[in-house]
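Q: What changes when adenosine-5'-diphosphate is included in the input?
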Amino acid sequence: MQGTVAEFNLIKRFFDTRPLQQPFNQLGIGDDCALLSIPNTQQLAVTTDTMVENVHFFADADPYTLGHKLLAVNLSDLAAMGAQPFAVTLALTMPKVDENWLQAFSEGFMHLARQHQVDLIGGDTTSGPLTLTVQAIGLVPQGSALLRSGAKAGDLIYVTGQLGNAGLGLKIKQGYACAQPAAMLASLHTPQPRIAQGLALRGIAHACIDISDGLAADLGHILEKSGVGACLQWDRLPLSAQVLDYLQKTGDWQMPLTAGDDYELCFSIPPQLEQALPPGCFCIGTIEAEPGLRINRGGRLAVLEAKGFEHFS
Ligand code: ADP
Ligand code: MG
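A: The predicted holo structure follows.
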């Protein structure tokens, strides 16, 4: 944006986090570019995600959780690659400067950034319809990134946490009544990027993805890129009491497989490496040579369409 004093003060006031925490970040906010020095044993992992008002969130969305979630979804992509995050940039497009909104948004954003020792090293501030973009940058040792393309028949399929909680959180927002809704709403609004788990999976997982669009859709990407299929075991899906109760009441048993926003990691590993896994991972099925995604529910096989949240449909 045109660098008026007011705008630069705004960045300084709400976002400037100097001193930088990471040694790779040699110059942060304040010049035309940030400068990063990368060890030559490492590769950069770079990702961008945008959130647009009325597309990804509603106009009345709480700015603190918005700041958290915007950063979390980007860090989740780094986690899925086994990368260690160290820097982010932030492009803010806002209809007007609302200081209360900015204060809360920056607190949510910076709190999560500090938790993961991530420096905000630059960005852009422009006027227009509320649009929030982050670029996240991480490091991964040469050749050890976790790709979608490495799954092999015989691998076990794991997830790092419960499925469907964020999906149920959305239904609660839309009026569904549920006991203990707070945990479900927290899954929806303040997902935790699985950075530590992603790092622990380096050298172990054959393939990995983060679940943003629903397990069926995202595991489907692994299957497609790896040229394999899979069979899931319904009984082994990690489901919260609230989700189980919802399934019983509605019969909507595909919800935990198709609802988005869980931001757990889904990965495949050879069975002999199971013991090396970090705690809190759940085995939910097996990679098979036959293409397609199947699920065994009480001895009956059903074929799952990869119909998680489809963008632009
Ligand atoms: P330029 O016009 O050279 O692109 P700007 O005036 O847009 O520079 O920004 C000035 C400095 O503030 C730059 O270092 C830029 O990276 C930083 N900056 C601008 N907006 C943001 C933001 N929303 N978050 C973090 N840093 C920002
Ligand atoms: Mg410039």
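Observations recorded in class: The two ends are 33 Å apart (CA to CA).
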